[in-house]
Design a protein that fits this description.
alpha/beta, two-stranded parallel sheet, binds S-adenosyl-L-homocysteine, 12 helices
Length: 348
C-alpha cells in the first residue's frame, strides 16, 4: 500500500489522524509544526518525538519530496525560477520574485493544463495531472529553504488552472494561511483563473479573503473565444457577472489580466471596448505584453502601443497598470522552463 501523503493533511485532520493511530492530540500538533512551520523533510528531524513514533510515522506516511531539478537566477532583476521534480517524476515550475514589500512566489496548481489558451506554453502538452495540497505548499516550502528568504505573498499563476483543481487548491489556501503553518495572510494570496464560472461562484462563498484575478484577454466574446477555448463554455457576460458576485461576497476587488497580443487585441477599438466593459466596476486592470512562446506565432506589441493602450484606459477612469516584466532572461514566463525541459528530454 502507498504511504499516506502526510503534508496534505490539514491541521484538524492531522490531529484526528494522530489520535486514530493512538497518539495524543498534542503529538499531532508537534508533527504539524514540524511539517508546516519548521518545514522538515524527514521524520528523523522531528527530535521532540520518540524514536518509536518517528519509526511508526515513517512506516505509514510519507513526506513527499518536491525536489529541485534546476534553478535559474536572473541577472536582470531579483527573480529566480525553479524547476521541481515530484515523487512520480512530474515536473513543475515556480518563480520567486523579490520586491520592496516582500517576497512573492508564483506557484503551479497542475502539471500541465487542459484549458488550451492559444498564447500559453503550459497548454501545449495538455494536462498531466492535478497537484495535491502538499505539492503546492511544497513549492513554497522548498523555495524558503533553498533561499533562506521568507515568502510573504503567493500568486497562483504558474502552470495549471486552480479552479480546475478546486478541492486541492482550496485546501492549499486554507493550509497556507493557517496560523499553525506559514500563516500567510489571505490578503497576500492571489489566484488567477481563466474563468470557470461555477467555481468562481463557489469560491466566493468560501469566506476567504484572497484576491481573484480573472484572465480576460479580450473585450468581447468573439475575440475571447479565439484566444481562450474555455470562453466557449463560459461566456464573457457570465464571467463578468461571476466576478461581480465574487466582489459582492468577499469585498475583494478583482484584478483583470489582459495579455496584449500585437495586432490581435491591442488596438484603439479594443481599448475603447475594454473601458466600456470595466467602467463602473471596482477593479484593477493588469496589462501584460504577451510573452512570445516559440511554438506560437503571437507577437509582442511594441512599447508605444502598450503605453497608448494604457493611456486610453486611464483616461476612461480605469485603474490600470502594466505588469513589470520579470525574469525574461530565465524563461520567467508562463511554463517555458518546463517546456524546455520536456523538449530536451525528447531530443535525447
Ligand atoms: N490558469 C490560470 C492561471 C495560470 S496563467 C489563468 O488562466 O488565469 C497566469 C496568467 O498568465 C494568465 O492570465 C494567463 O492567461 C497568462 N499567460 C499565459 N501565457 C502567457 C503568455 N505567453 N504571455 C502573457 N501572459 C500569458
Amino acid at each position: 500500500m502507498d504511504k499516506k501523503d502526510i503534508v496534505s493533511f490539514g491541521y484538524e485532520e492531522l490531529l484526528s489522524e494522530m489520535e486514530g493511530i493512538g497518539e495524543k492530540s498534542f503529538r499531532g500538533k508537534q508533527v504539524y509544526s514540524w511539517l508546516h512551520e519548521k518545514l522538515a523533510d524527514e521524520f528523523s528531524q522531528m527530535t521532540n518525538l520518540s524514536k518509536a513514533l518517528r519509526q511508526k510515522l515513517d512506516d505509514a506516511y510519507e513526506i513527499r519530496k518536491v525536489s529541485m531539478a534546476a534553478r535559474q537566477i536572473s541577472r536582470r532583476d531579483p527573480t529566480e525560477k525553479f524547476l521541481f521534480e515530484l515523487h512520480d517524476g512530474s515536473m513543475i515550475e515556480s518563480v520567486l520574485m523579490k520586491y520592496d514589500y516582500g517576497n512573492s512566489v508564483c506557484v503551479s496548481s497542475q502539471a500541465g493544463c487542459r484549458m488550451g489558451c492559444r498564447f500559453c506554453a503550459s497548454a501545449i502538452g495538455g494536462l498531466e495531472r492535478n497537484l495535491t495540497p502538499s505539492e503546492m505548499l511544497g513549492q513554497i516550502y522548498r523555495i524558503q529553504k533553498l533561499t533562506g528568504e521568507r515568502v510573504s505573498n503567493v500568486v497562483v499563476m504558474g502552470t495549471g488552472e486552480p479552479l480546475d483543481n478546486y478541492d486541492n487548491f482550496l485546501k492549499f489556501v486554507t493550509m497556507l494561511s493557517d496560523s499553525h503553518g506559514l500563516h500567510i495572510s489571505q490578503r497576500n494570496i492571489t489566484a488567477s483563473t481563466c474563468g470557470i464560472v461555477p467555481n468562481i461562484k463557489r469560491l466566493a462563498k468560501e469566506g476567504l479573503q484572497i484576491t481573484l484575478a480573472l484572465s480576460l484577454h479580450a473585450s468581447n466574446q468573439e475575440k475571447r473565444e479565439k484566444l481562450m477555448p474555455v470562453a466557449r463554455k463560459y461566456g464573457l457576460s457570465e464571467v463578468m457577472e461571476a466576478c461581480d458576485y465574487y466582489f459582492e461576497k468577499t469585498g475583494r476587488r478583482p484584478t483583470f489580466e489582459y495579455s496584449l497580443v500585437g495586432g490581435v487585441n491591442d488596438g484603439p477599438e479594443d481599448a475603447k471596448e475594454l473601458s466600456a466593459l470595466l467602467s463602473g466596476r471596482n477593479c484593477h486592470l493588469n496589462l501584460i505584453p504577451v510573452n512570445t512562446v516559440k511554438e506560437r506565432d503571437f507577437e509582442r506589441p511594441d512599447r508605444k502601443n502598450v503605453l497608448a493602450f494604457k493611456n486610453k484606459l486611464e483616461k476612461n477612469g480605469i485603474n490600470v497598470t502594466i505588469r513589470r516584466e520579470r525574469g525574461s532572461d530565465i524563461d520567467g514566463a508562463c511554463g517555458q522552463l518546463r517546456r524546455r525541459y520536456a523538449d530536451s528530454k525528447k531530443e535525447k
